[in-house]
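haha ok so turns out i had the wrong file open the whole time. this is the CORRECT one, sorry everyone. sequence first:
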Amino acid sequence: MLEILVDPKFETLPIAVISSLSNYKYEEEVVLMWGTIYKINSFIYDERKQFWIINISLSDELGETKLKNMVDYIKHEIKQETDLGTLADLFFKMGEFERSKMYYLKFNSQLSKDDINKTRVFQGLYEIADVQGNYNISMENYGEAHKCFDQQLKLCQSLPSHHPQYGKCYENIANLYDIEGEKRSALVHYEKAYEIYIKSLPAYHPDTTKVEQAIENCRLPTRPFADIEGTSYYPHEREILFMLGSIFRIDHIDYDGENQLWIINMSLCSEDDFELKELFAYLKKDIGDEISMTTLGNVLLQMGEYDKAERIFLRMDHQEGLISVAELKGNFYLAIKHYDRSIEYYKQSLELRHKLLPQSHPDIGKSYSAIAMAYEFSKRYVKAVHNYQRAIEQYKRTLRSNHPLIIQTNNNLP
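then structure:
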């Protein structure tokens, strides 16, 4: 039961008393407009009738100081005229992916073939498939993950055959097959992704390099090893050097009573070994890359140990890793509202990208966009607009005018 207090001095959304029209003759019934805002004053439990009475006040959304920040936030989030696409975007941010997908599809049915919002719908559905696919992988629901990535691939049929997002679909499918231990299928899809990346991305792009390494790994039956008996410090020992990450099967263990030591007899295994597929799938899911100092740096980034990761990448002079460090530090300080520190690290990532990447690379635009967002959150709108515009200019150097990054950045302009 609700008790509603209405103050006529407040400017609120319309209400209507419908007691005379109600089927419940002895109830005072009111119809309130969708979106009406209330303040909860008190909860009282009626023991005799065994229900709760909620006392609420109809609020003035403009006059209530405590509500003003919330209303301003909603306006900031939506920015443009509300439509089904906006609702789909909000459900996506809330993690309600099925509802988001439903509204994107409804919105799409209302659009003409050449409507610019078609790109917006595509990007939304593409990201939903990506998120749901990777979530199912993390839950080991590989069948469902395949369905999500197949949907993602089907969406990309409207794109040019060499578009990098097409390549990303094949890479996702290849990663999934790799986790399942299906090396041949993984190799086929990695090669498809590689063919697209070399046509659509700049030379030495990280995505191309990563897929090249994955292809090499799929072709190797076991990790490399070397007989180092001739160079060993122990001249009478047969010594073998194995690569970090090699997998062995323990065949049997024997105790040598005379020398008082255990002898472990092991076999070096192929990563395609049927009995090891589940173990290898777990390792690939947990680590994800070739075991190396780069992997260690990436794992430290995932743990939030940015300074330790930075030391490793500096030691290796790994510029891509340093870009990730600067960007993640910027994200961290943005999240805790230390905007100046955030801007400092975003500018570091921008400087590194200028040094490492071709001057027309779209990732440079991402750095400008991150700087703009930090300025916007700190209410320095002139600088925010300036950096958003620089991001758009950067994107337009290599991307079509209806590319999702350009549309999204235009929408972000205050």
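The first strand starts at residue 2 and ends at 5.
again sry for the mixup
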